Every structure is written in structure tokens, then in C-alpha cells.
Amino acid sequence: MRAAGHRSSRAHANAHAAAHAAAHAAANTTAWVLGALLLLFLAVPIILLVALGAGGVGNALRDPDTIAALETTFVTATGATLIAAICGSPIAYALSRASFRGRSVIAAIVDLPLLIPHPVAGIAILLLVSRDTAFGSALLDMGFRVVGTPAGIIAAMLFVSAPLYISAAREAFARVDRRFEFVARTLGDTPWAAFRRVTLPLARRGLASAAIVTWARAVSEFGAVVVLAYNPKVVSVLSYDRFTTGGLGQALPIAATLVLVSIVPLIALRALKYDRNSEVVS
Amino acid sequence: MIECRDVNARVGNFAIRAVTFVVPQGVHAALTGPTASGKTTLLELIAGAIAPRSGIVRVGGIDVTGRPPETRGIGFVPQHGYLFPHLNTSENVRYGARDPATVASLTRRFGIEHLMDRTVTKLSGGERQVVALCRSLAPRPDVVLLDEPFAALDADRRATVLNEFSALQVEWGFTVLHVTHDESDARSATLRLVMSDGSIT
Fold first, then answer.
1. Which residues in chain A touch residue B70, judged by CB atoms under 8 angstroms apart?
2. In CA terms, which of A52, A212, B114, B188 is 20 to 30 Å from B7?
3. Residues A125/A206, Cβ–Cβ less than 8 Å
4. Other C-beta atoms lying within 10 Å of the C-beta of residue B65
5. Nearest C-alpha of chain B: how many angstroms from A96?
6. Within an 8 Å CB–CB cutoff, is residue B28 touching chain A?
7. Cα separations (Å) of B154 from B25, B115, B157?
8. Is there a contact between B139 and A179 if contact means CB atoms under 8 Å apart?
9. What sign does the CA torsion over B10, B12, B15, B20 have?
């Protein structure tokens, strides 16, 4: 009787374990399916766009408007990336190293542009540079126009992409062990010399990948750019313009061109990332 | 000369308490004590990586307490060497050197001439430590702080390197504070400091 009871309780435990394993497997499968659906949703429209639009890329590249838009986009995105790198690196470095007064305020300011809609960012910059403000009228008095110029495009791109640079560069600096800097200091380096001779070279791959993300973000910016400069047209504005005037067929080749152009830096970025994983930094 | 007078410091949860000691000019002092007793923290404090909360640090008789590391005349060999991975062996040794003759003599004496063109990430643990030692000596420091610099060397190599180091110390006259767990290293020192729970006992 006791033995039978023992057996039945063991059978019960086994059944329980099996049910548990089945539930676990079901949960696992569900998680995979949900993840796969999202991945498909992210990838398929882009693949479709390139597949259907690729045939028109050749023609698009013979269209002077597209060529001009590509040129404007690359020049302004490169300008925005350079400004983000030059002005953003010191901020990124400070955030990665020191705990100082106002650190959280700086971090919040840096995150701010990520939280507001991009057209709103454009409107905010428009307010700053309009002739109604002292700053805007001073710029205009000096003959420096922002609205409707490459400078406006750069300003819009910088506003939305600089935070990405700062956060990626901050990670790149944080990965460099501070002891390297300290050893350089004991070997006679000033803080700046140690940064230039040790920290910067050790962070260079991370900084390069930060710059690529920034550039790709600047190239694909639409909302803030369109508010500040409908003309000269960047590629994203041109594709929107063609879409509203000529429909999907007109917009598709340009959209495909833009995607192909933004895929190139992303592939370069992946390559850098894989490289970095094998690199010894500590 | 290295002098700490009533030095207190706090790094994270870890404290250095009322540390007072003197290592006279040209003396090789061993600093021993259990793991996590504050030995490395004390070296970093003397070298200037950490500022004390109170107390005075003197190097060569000069108060360096508030001074940046690059003005202290201290050579520092951290545990594991911390060779700059983006530079080769030669560039590492030359990093803070004032003249090429010193570099040439150091590399010859410590037997690392054949490693000069190598990538430092490809060196063995022992080779890295010797390179790090040479790099710290190249600027001709007044004081050398060593954090278990010979731990990765086999016994033979260890004895050779230690002999060469002692000979160089007599010639150049620098002062040494040497953190070690090795009893034979500690015996080769002329002064012995023992640290426990953040204090010199």
C-alpha cells in the first residue's frame, strides 16, 4: 500500500515535470515566434523596397535632382558628424570618466533630443534662428542664413544625431581602462598628452563606429530637416517630395538609393564592431 | 625618499587609515600583507592616482600631496604591467624616456632587445612585466613603485631580473617600494613594511 502510494506520487511528480517541460517548450516557441515576427516586420519592407526600387537606381543616379540631393546629403551629414565628433568627444570623455557636479544635468541635456519628435526639434531650432531672437537677428545681420540653406540642414542633422555620437563615444571611452592613462601620467604625460597618446588611440574603433552611426542617422534625417530647409533638398526630402507629387513609383527609386547608401555605413560599422570584439583593450 | 605622514584615504568601501612610514633615499623596501589590505591603493596614492583625505605624501623630501602624477618623479609598475596595447615593445619602453642611451642600456641589461619589434599583446606574462619595468625606469625616476612585478616570472628569470634591478638601484640611487607576496623578494629588500586592513603595522 505504502509502496503503491510512493509509486503513484513519483508518477505524479514525473507527470508534473513533463507538464512543466512542455509549458517551458511552449513558452520558448512562443517567444521565438514573436521575435521572428518582429524581425520580419523590420527586414521585409526594406528588402521589398530595395528589390522593387533597385531597377530604378541606375536611372535615379542619372537624374540631376537626385545627384544634387545625394551631394547635399553627404556634405551636410559629414559636416554634422564632424561637428558632433569635435564638440561631442570632450563631453563623452567627461561623462565616461569623472563624477562631477552637473553631470546628470549634462546627461539629461544630451538625451533630450532623443525624446522629442523631430519636426518639433526643427521648429525649436527655427525659433532660435528666426529674426525674432537676438541670436537669429545677429546671424542674419552677419549675412548668415540658416533657414533654407545647407547650414540649416546641418543644424537639424546635428540636433538629432549628436546625442547618438555622445552616447556611443562615451561607451568607447569607458571601455579604456583608466590605469593606462594613469601609467602614461607617471611616465610624464599631462592629462591632455595621456588622452592624445593613449586614450584616443585605444578608443579609436569605438569612436569610428560612433561617427558612422551619427553619419547614418544624419543621412536619414527627415523631420527636423524638412522644417528648416525644404530646399536645397536632401535625399529624404526629395523622396518625400516625389512621393507627394508623383506617387510611389516616383519615390521608390530614390528611396531605394537612400537605403543602399545608408546600408553601406552600417555594414562598415558591423565590420568594425566584430574587429573590436577580438581586440585586447585591458 | 618616500614619506607618508598620517595619510587617510577612501576608495569606494575601502580605507587607508593613518598610514605613516619613511623609506630613506636609495633603500629597497618590501610592502607585504594579506590580499585587499590596501597595498595597491597605497602605491596609487603615492603615485598620485588617488588624493588622500588628509595627511602628507613626500617624495625626495618634497611635499607632493596635491601635485599631478607627472611631476612626482615616480616610476610605477602596476600589476599585470598595463603595457599600451596599441604600441610595440620599443614604443612602450621609449614612452617616457628622455634619452635613447638609457633605453638601449635598459633593454640590454634586462635582456629584452629581441622583443623590441614585437606586438606587446603577443608577449608572455613574464616578458610583459620586464618590459613594464624597463618602461618605468626609462625616465630615470627618483622613486620606483612596484606592484608584484615579478609574479609571472619563473624562478631563474626572477633571480636574474631582481639582481639586475638591485645593481641598477645602486648605480642610479633610486628608492623602491615593492609590493610582493613572494618571501624571497621580500628578503632581498632592506626594509620591510607590513600592511593590514588599511594600516601599516
1. 185-190
2. B188
3. no
4. 18
5. 17
6. no
7. 30, 18, 6
8. no
9. negative
Picking from B157, B158, B136, B155, the residue whose alpha carbon sits closest to that of residue B146 is B136
Is residue A99 exposed (0-12), middle (13-18) or buried (19+ Cβ within 10 Å)? Answer: exposed
* A230 and B CB contact within 8 Å: no
Residue with the three cell numbers 537605403: A259
SS3 A107: helix
Give the span between the Cα atoms of B51 and B5, in whole angstroms.
14
What does the DSSP 8-state code read for residue B159?
Answer: H
Handedness of CA A219, A220, A225, A230 (dihedral sign): positive
Task: Give, for all 282 residues of chain A, the pLDDT tens digit.
Answer: 455 555 566 777 777 888 888 888 888 999 999 999 999 999 999 899 989 988 888 888 899 999 999 999 999 999 999 999 999 999 999 999 877 788 889 989 998 888 999 999 999 999 999 888 889 889 989 989 999 999 999 999 999 999 999 999 999 999 999 999 999 999 999 999 999 999 999 999 999 999 999 999 999 999 999 999 999 999 999 999 999 999 999 999 999 998 888 777 777 777 776 655 444 443
Show the CA angle centred on residue A8, arms to residues A7 and A9, nearest 5°: 90
Per DSSP (E only), the strands in B38-153 are 54-59, 62-63, 74-77, 143-147
DSSP-based three-state secondary structure for A214: helix
Beta-carbon count within 10 A of A263 CB = 13
H-run or E-run covering A199: none
Predicted TM-score (pTM) of the model is 0.84
Q: Are A39 and A46 in contact (CB under 8 A)?
A: no
How far, CA to CA in Å, does B75 sit from each of A183, A199, B136? Answer: 9, 20, 5
Partner B contacted by A98 (CB < 8 A): no
Radius of gyration of chain B (CA): 16
Please answer whether residues B176 and B27 qualify as being in contact, where contact means their C-beta atoms are separated by less than 8 angstroms.
yes
